[in-house]
Design brief:
The protein is an all-alpha fold and 185 residues long.
Length: 185
C-alpha cells in the first residue's frame, strides 16, 4: 500500500494516493511514528486532491503530537484557506509564524487569508515581509497590487503589478490578470 501510495504521489494522482494512505493508516496504532508519517502523507494528498476538510482533520490530529511543528500549523492554515475559513487560517498561520518567525510561506498564507477577509491593510503588512523573497516575491508584489487596488490606490497598485511582472514575466497568474485588467481600462 505504501509503495502504491507514493507511486500515485509521484504521478500526482492525489485522490488515489489519499485512498491508499487511508487504508494504510488503519493498519497502525494511533500516535505511533509510523501512523503519524502516514497521516502526514494523507493530509498532503487530501489537500492536493482539494479535500480540504479531510486535510484539516488530519493536520488537527497531528497537532496533538506535533504542537511545535510549524509545518503542521501551516498545513492547517492552508486547509482552512481552502475551506474559506479565514479566521482559522489567520490563527493557524500566526501560530506557524510564532514557531518559525519570518517564514515566507506562512506570510503568504497569512496575507491571502487577510485579503480574503477584506482586511487589505493587514494583508499588505504580511506581504511586505516577503517582497524580497526569491520564491514568493512575484506573488507578494502581485497581491500587494491587488490590495492597493481594493484600497483605491491605483498608482501604488500599478507599480506593484509592474514589479510582479518584472520579477516573473512568465507567471501565468500575473500575465492573465494584467491582460484582463488592461482590457477593462
Amino acid at each position: 500500500l505504501e509503495s502504491c501510495g507514493y507511486a500515485y504521489v509521484a504521478s500526482q494522482q492525489w485522490q488515489k494516493a489519499a485512498e491508499k494512505f487511508e487504508l494504510l493508516r488503519a493498519r497502525y496504532q494511533p500516535q505511533t511514528e509510523q501512523y503519524n508519517v502516514v497521516l502526514r502523507s494523507l493530509a498532503m494528498c487530501s489537500f492536493n486532491a482539494e479535500n480540504y476538510g479531510r486535510a484539516l482533520t488530519c493536520y488537527d490530529e497531528l497537532s496533538v503530537t506535533y504542537r511545535n511543528d510549524p509545518e503542521v500549523w501551516i498545513g492547517m492554515a492552508q486547509a482552512a484557506l481552502g475551506l474559506d475559513d479565514m479566521e482559522r487560517s489567520v490563527h493557524f498561520a500566526q501560530k506557524a509564524l510564532k514557531l518559525q518567525p519570518s517564514w515566507p510561506k506562512a506570510y503568504a498564507v497569512l496575507g491571502s487569508a487577510f485579503y480574503m477577509k477584506g482586511q487589505y491593510e493587514e494583508s499588505l503588512d504580511a506581504y511586505r515581509h516577503i517582497t524580497g523573497d526569491d520564491d514568493y516575491a512575484a506573488f507578494a508584489w502581485f497581491m500587494t497590487g491587488r490590495c492597493y487596488r481594493q484600497l483605491g490606490q491605483t498608482i501604488q497598485a500599478n507599480s506593484a503589478f509592474d514589479r510582479a511582472e518584472q520579477l516573473d514575466p512568465s507567471n501565468e497568474l500575473v500575465t492573465t490578470f494584467l491582460k484582463r485588467t488592461l482590457k477593462s481600462l
